[in-house]
Amino acid sequence: MSRIAVLISGNGSNLQALIDSVEAGDLATEIAVVVSSQADAFGVQRAQRAGIPVKVMPLPDGDDRDRFDRELADVVASYQPDLVVLAGWMLILGAEFLDRFPDDVINLHPAMPGAFPGTDAIKRAHAAFHRGEIKRTGVMVHRVVAEVDAGPAVVAEPVPIFQDESVADLEERVHLVEHNLIVAAVDLLLGDS
Ligand code: GAR
Q1: Would residue 109 show up in a list of annotated catalytic residues for this protein?
Q2: What is the CATH number of the domain that holds 63?
Q3: How far is the CA of 87 from the centre of ligand 1 (A)?
């Protein structure tokens, strides 16, 4: 049975989608550990409720970033994951982390490849739509490289934007697509292992 590590920073609704798929027998992997960068993230409670080991690893104030990446990599590696899944993980990971899991770190991002990297991607897409710059946004899961929210896409799905909808409405529809896509990406990458 393959193993994944899921890294989160907040609500953890995408973690929940993975938990639900594993529990339903639709995703044949074990969530070996959940790491949260925030102690009070709701995703921590979701993991605890599912009986998954949880590690809380906040970025210490003014700490050496390479050292944090090394310590994080040590914790994640100790669970021997086949794939590291960033599901709403909001810290940038450098080479000290990425080089420990070559090609085996994926990230969920609420935009199409090349569009709206960084935070508030859905809000920025909504604003760009109303400026007439785009007609749709999307969701992607991509392999993680040093550049933020870049790296080759594993799966991507466009999401239309409707004229009369609020940012909250768009966010809700984007999250629904994410919940399917994150499971599909893990299944695709680990399906044969
Ligand atoms: C998701 O929308 C995810 O795509 C986004 O954070 C949210 C986490 O939601 N990630 C990024 O913006 C990464 N740049 P969740 O905590 O409910 O899974």
Answers
A1: yes
A2: 3.40.50.170
A3: 6
